[in-house]
Amino acid sequence: MNTMTLWHISGWGFAALAFAALLVGFSKTAVSGANTVSLAIFAAILPARASTGVLLPVLIAGDVLAVLTYRRHAHWPTLWRLFPAVAAGVVAGTLFLVWADDGVVRTSIGAILLLMAGVTLWRRRTAGTPEDPDEVGTRAGRVKARSYGVLGGFTTMVANAGGPVMSMYLLSAGFRKLGFLGTSAFFFLIVNVSKVPFSAGLGLIDGHSLLLDAALVVFVVPGAFLGKWAVHRINQRLFEQLVIAATIVGGLQLLLR
Known about the structure:
It is a multi-pass membrane protein. This protein is mainly alpha-helical. About 80% of the residues lie in helices and about 0% in strands. The protein has helices at about 5, 10-30, 35-45, 50-70, 75-100, 100-125, 140-160, 160-170, 175-200, 205-215, 220-230, 235-255. The chain is globular and about 50 Å long.
């Protein structure tokens, strides 16, 4: 019995999942937040809760490629500020998954993503100049990091949708393109790997899901190379607009599905 039969996936369904895996690679090395489209595709082809467990190893493969590509551009002071709040968010997300059904999860995450996009757009209209990443250690900066960190940990645990939340934080903190990609690469590699025991404990990762991952992960590599080629051809303003647009689309998909 092959993997597609185990999951009752048609040829077109597998093609859609392969495209979603390719998009994961692209998003990790070019436009972070675009993999909300991948999240929607996985949830449409597979059972909604199970789809998060299948998608997680695919995301980790993309994270590894992103770290290898942008490792010299990470801003570690920002990462250290975020991790404690993210850990609290992951624990809260795990508890939430114990009782929440798919409808509650989708509505909650979609609303959070749209709220984050709205806040970021408002800040960009009212702020004079963006903060430098080295200056976000102020009291206001620490409060913002904790708030986004908890939301990021929560959303990444319940729906693998933490990318847009952290994208909004990094944009609001004034990160330029390569610093943005390098910092988010390390952030999500560490966070996604730490989620594996929680997902396995909830039964979202098992032998069947890993078999499907083995078939899909090969499609992440060409997506990552495509993203690496594209990112140097996208100017900063367009890059930021694409990140925000991907966040809004992802939030609407979750709310309307």
